Automatic annotation (TrEMBL):
Residue ranges constituting the Thioredoxin domain according to the UniProt record: 7-166
Keyword Iron: no
Protein name: Thioredoxin peroxidase
Keyword Disulfide bond: no
């Protein structure tokens, strides 16, 4: 068994470009509009009811993220057609991207699963990942799981990000200790 290496907190977020449902190119980790940070959420795909619930819950915190300068995007390995069909169950206004390539999943250090059957989906897919990329393009917060049952509590996450973004707190990127030193 061989899993991909994990990204380090504080390291540069890799340059990965995907497409949104309207075929607009979206470069992950590059905030849009007035935002200076970006939250990149990787989800399993339309076959996952927990992903649908999580994405819809993200919509509930989107305005709080925007208020502290954090843009929100989500991506999966689904095809454009699968995303189009999934949107019927999604009530979100942030960009959803499709076609996350296997190589990008590996680069992000995500756990990758093989479908249990053709009824589940027709391609390998990434297990959940969440990355908050700061204004320098570095990973401020990282959360990677090997299954859909383990995800950050969104209320705790957004409250923590509000605290981190407050300049009076001067909160550094955590988890940067190197075992080689």
């Amino acid at each position: 068994m061989n899993t991909s290496p994990k990204l380090n907190a504080g390291s540069a977020f890799p340059s990965i470009t995907v497409k949104t449902i309207d075929d607009t190119a979206l470069t992950l980790g590059q905030p849009r509009g007035d935002a200076t940070w970006q939250m990149v959420v990787v989800y399993r795909g339309r076959h996952c009811p927990l992903c649908t619930k999580f994405l819809n819950h993200l919509e509930d915190i989107k305005e709080r993220l925007a208020a502290i300068g954090i843009d929100l995007v989500a991506v999966s390995a689904d095809s454009r057609e699968q995303l189009q069909s999934h949107r019927e169950k999604l009530f979100v206004s942030f960009p959803l991207a499709y076609g996350l390539p296997l190589e990008a999943m590996k680069t992000l250090g995500l756990y990758i699963s093989v479908p249990r059957s053709e009824q589940e989906t027709d391609h390998n897919f990434a297990e959940p990942g969440l990355f908050v990329v700061n204004e320098e393009g570095n990973i401020q917060v990282i959360d990677i799981s090997n299954n859909p049952f383990v995800r950050p509590d969104l209320e705790a996450l957004v409250s923590g990000l509000e605290w981190i973004r407050n300049p009076e707190n001067n909160y550094p990127i955590r988890g940067t200790y190197s075992y080689g030193h």
